[in-house]
Amino acid sequence: MGVSLSKAAQWTTFSPDASKLKSTPTNEALLKEILTFVEQIGSQHPQEADFTFEAPLQWRTTVVTSDLKSDYHIRDSTAWSHETDSREAPPLLTPFTVRVRSLGQLSMLIQAAEDKKLEEVQACLEGNRDFLVKILGPRIASQLLEDGAYADVESLKEDFWNGCRAPPWRQAQGEICYVVIESVDTGSLNVTCCTAGVFLNGVGGPGALFISNSRKEFILNSAAGVTLWLLLFHTYIMYIHSVTCRLRDCCSFRKTSSKATLAELSSETSSESEEEEERPEHQPESDFYLSSEFLQIKKLVKYLKKGDQKVTLLMLCCMLDLDLTQDSCNLAIRDEGGLQFLLNLLDTNEDKCKIGALKILIRMSRCVPIQRSMEDMLGVRSLVNNLDSEVTKVKALAAETIANVANFPRARRTVRQSGGIEKLIKLLDCFLKSQKKSDHLENMEAARCGALALWSCSRSTKNKKAICSAGGIPLLGCLLTSSLESMLIPVVGTLQECASEESSRITIQSKDIIKNLVKNLRSNCTDLQIQCSMALFKCAEDTETRDLVRKYKGLKPLVELLNNTNNKELLAAATGAIWKCSISIENVLIFQNDKVLESLAGLLTAQPEEVLINVAGALTEFLQVPANKAVIRKCDGIKPMIQLLLSTNQALLVNVTKAISACATDRENMKIIDELDGISLLWSLLQNPNPEVQASAAWAICPCIGNSKDAMRTVLSFQGFGRIPDLLMSTNNEVLASICAVIAKLAKYKNILATLTDLGIVSLLTKLTNTKDDRLRHHLSDAICHCCQFANNTAAFGEAGAVEPLVRYMKSEDILVRQSATMALFQLSWDPNNNLTMLSRGAVKVSCV
């Protein structure tokens, strides 16, 4: 009774002195159980009924003297029993208050309450929250009951969700675990490890080493000395370390953005070597452990563990009725040992038990902490092993569970290392080869679940390669002919994940998969349209794929998807596919007929960043056509692009600057950019720490300088001008090439060139001449050529050693490098010393060749 009240009774949240029992089904059941016990105590346990309490139970009662029988002395409104206890103290009834000293007396009083028995029991409990102390005395806290002690000892063997071994009610006091240490000179030592330190239980006496603590007293026998202290300290530190590791493993997950852009997806995939971000595990509220649902889970797990096959099946059916969508239920099942038992069932030969366990695991595995716990318990390996089962339903359920669990790198790695990729692909093959109609339906479900699992696994780079090398791409392509959307979505999802690998894209191009992807773009299923668009987005990196999309008339469906402005995910996928397809000028011409440029310009405002990135990328490709530069101006597309330069998204800044660079080649557009202070914003982007942003901003500045009315005033008024020397010390070749191109444009203005010379531009450019990058060589030579126009720069370049490397540039296979090097050498030749260097290094011979 005491255990039930302390752990299951539900009290109000007032102060302990004024708390009342809540009106809940659990409390009502407890009160009825206690009432039955008290009523039968006299007949079933007469000896125990006469046991005298250490202190009387006292509470406010509804019983009056008229309710009592002849066994009581009654005087006015006070009554006392004829019977006395061992202390010669009879039970006493005064107005509104009653005191009893034995269970027998309590039983008689409850009988007198008649139809108010439950209310009387409740009043007794509420008036005596510490009734065990009153019945057995204050030393009850230090006395152990056999059953309770056994249960507590067993609980110490369990690892809780946070890695502690102390029972939950002791963890609230800061206790972590209890350790028994066998020492050489003092025998067994019982130690409590808690957040305040390590404490030795029950040690005292003269000659002991005493360490005071605000919470407890820590006493060590002097014979143990420093060695024992170090042992205890080491034990504590090691356990704290193990708890920390458990918490990190249980609560970690991969660092991914909740809104990953399509532009990022093309180059970034989840890597198994990346660290997983820590996610705090949401434990059930404390009230859940007091709920009837938790008690039901506890009973189910208990019978599940101890029952035979029939009982196990029955308990599995009962567990399916639980609300497994709640994390609290799933975590309670795990903490009670139910998850481990379900995983153990997968290693048996009982197919019915396997099916029942897998149905539960499918629902539980949607909970993130359960996914990680299943991996920790080697459950993923058991799931992979069941893919070899002779029962198709078992294989299907195991594959679907893997699809849920493989949401983090460690589980995906386990699937691959256990041979799961090949087994999942085999499920696809079995479906394609199935002949019988009955088998066909079962195999189709297994193939669908297999595709779901492959989709989850394909988020890791190594798994993508494994799928491709195992022949999974052609089989997935064959499944694209299915009419079932539930089959097509995971199939296309797997293909679009694998499409980030070049080997997979080659296979996709050669197996007519593009044709089916284009076909499914016309589906009424939004999710399928999203996956098809994303697949084309990744595959259209290759010229062959862009040509195939045009061949199978896939451009028109993509344009139609732009009308779904409310579905941002679909809009992002469609704009991404249009962006990559527009890299081919032939596709741009077709898009022009459908006025796609105008539609894209309208999407430059009030859209999420993932849409804006793709729209800006597509506009960059459209603006390569000269006629479109006037179109973007007429549809007011330049202003929103300039405003996007204030964004903090790096990928968006890269694409927007490229689009503005394409616009700036038109003088009319350049006027608008100048009026909107676009050049100033571009210069400010040179201070961005991202090299890609720096490079794209520098490339955009080049046409702005060339087409600006007053370039010198524009340049000298911006702080970004002073960043040029710093950027010439960058380790990124693209940044260096773009800055050299900017210098070549600026050097046409003498005042600016004079300032650049004062900033030490000659020595900085000369240091770059030993590069082997042809793109950098081309723009570096061009910059040197234009810088020679000022004062003594020609001689300065020769003295710095720029001539000899430029002579070597003449041997480059890139014609642009040879042209710019020739022009640079021509300018350098105005200095006699430079001519001597050229002749000695064979410049004349090279030029003649």
UniProtKB/TrEMBL annotation:
This is Outer dynein arm docking complex subunit 2. ARM repeats lie at residues 553-578, 801-843. SUPFAM superfamilies: ARM repeat. It comes from Oryzias sinensis. Keywords: Membrane, Transmembrane, Transmembrane helix. The chain crosses the membrane at residues 218-239. InterPro entries: ARM-like (IPR011989), ARM-type_fold (IPR016024), Armadillo (IPR000225). Residues 264-286 are annotated as: Disordered.
